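FIELD: query
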Amino acid sequence: MARPIDLSIIIVNYNTKELLKDCLESIQTSQELTSDEIFVVDNASSDKSVEMVKKDFPNVLLLSNRQNLGFAKANNQAIKKASGRYILLLNPDTKVEKNTLWEMIRFMENNPKVGVATCRVELPNCELDRDCRRSFPTPWVSFSKFSGLAKIFPKTKLFGSYQLTYLDEKKLSEVDACVGAFMMVRREAIDKIGLLDERFFFYGEDLDWCFRFKEKGWQIVYNPSVKITHYKGASSGMKHSSQHVTTATTKAKRKALIASTEAMKIFYQKHYQGRYPKVVTLLVFGGIWLLEKIRLAGVR
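FIELD: result
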């Protein structure tokens, strides 16, 4: 009888061929798993990513879409087919360290109340990708972030909750949410909570998923004992840390930026609109509109 699959790795790709190749190679050279399967879901890339995967990684389970279906829908395609007891959402613009996958599986095995876990996600300059552990964006938490108060008072819980800058980044912590760049999820939890919300095209789906897991009592944990490197924003071209590797056009950057602010609206409407007075909702939507205009003005 075949041994059960421990881990199903799902990578959604859009025009990041070289980074995807590096990512898959890093998985291959990481510490051997007891059993695993790797899915690449390609969202109609035009850079010959599909051909590269077929040629260089024949054992990868490739799903090739004819159009860009977005991050949530593409991940759901593979989750439905995956056999692993744990599902790992992994960005193509990441590199996995040798023992990261095995240690994270062992962590999940030893902590059955943990529904979702992430490792230390580092940027290429070795700094923490602060989005890898964060609080849910309540109006106050979001205001603290976008007003700049979180930068002025990063070590206070009152202002530094957005990216949990008041917590020691070297210590294991239970958090509200982690980032979809590396998100290990217990299959049992998915079966109870459901798939990613496909209303989120690009951004926000990981945050929404964590919110739903937490609502049902599952823990979300940041485990910094192991790490990956994240060339953040390579697909969207929105982040300074990946400007030297991104191939995103100005049109693609604008589309990703609009999707990110649309995700803010969807998340607020879904989880917070009924909890706050109408005046707060008007201020929130006004702030999102202004943020989008400011960001669009800076797209090159």
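FIELD: remark
The mean pLDDT is 92.
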